[in-house]
Fold this sequence. Notes:
- The chain has helices at residues 27-33, 71-81, 96-105, 118-125, 142-147; strands spanning 13-14, 25-26, 38-41, 59-64, 87-92, 109-112.
- The chain is globular and about 50 Å long.
- It has a six-stranded parallel β-sheet.
- It has five helices and six strands, in the order E-E-H-E-E-H-E-H-E-H-H.
- The longest helix is centred in the middle third of the chain and has 11 residues, at 71-81.
- It has a single domain (13-147), classed as Rossmann fold.
Amino acid sequence: MGDARIAVPADLRFRDDEPADAPAVTLDAFLDQANSSAVRLEAGEDARRLLPHLEHIALIEIDFPRFRDGRGYSSAQILREAGYEGELRATGDVLVDQIDHMRRCGFDGFAPDKPIDLAVLEASLNRYDYRYQTAADHTVPVWKLRHG
């Protein structure tokens, strides 16, 4: 099972890493026109409304208006379980200690309101050697490693 530690993963993207091809539009604007490849979900909007369009969307931004608002985690999980393979970006009040949990739900991009210290992020991502439950990140849980 090893004790290999990871650095900040190369697939972890932050807002300034790569410019978006097109700005994200609101959910209602997307559903009215359905010609954008980037959509922004506000807290409380139903991610299931995007399910028929997932193959045409390259980026879905999910806003976290406050760090204690967890509705975005559910939206991410719904989208990944439905097969969405594009970038899923958490925006807004994203704190460094939430990023590991957000990645487990399927987020792979981040646009926090405040800068993230990469050394603190690396320590946060390396805090736990094993996971006890399955999630959207497909990490093999420790019980399965032990018992096959």
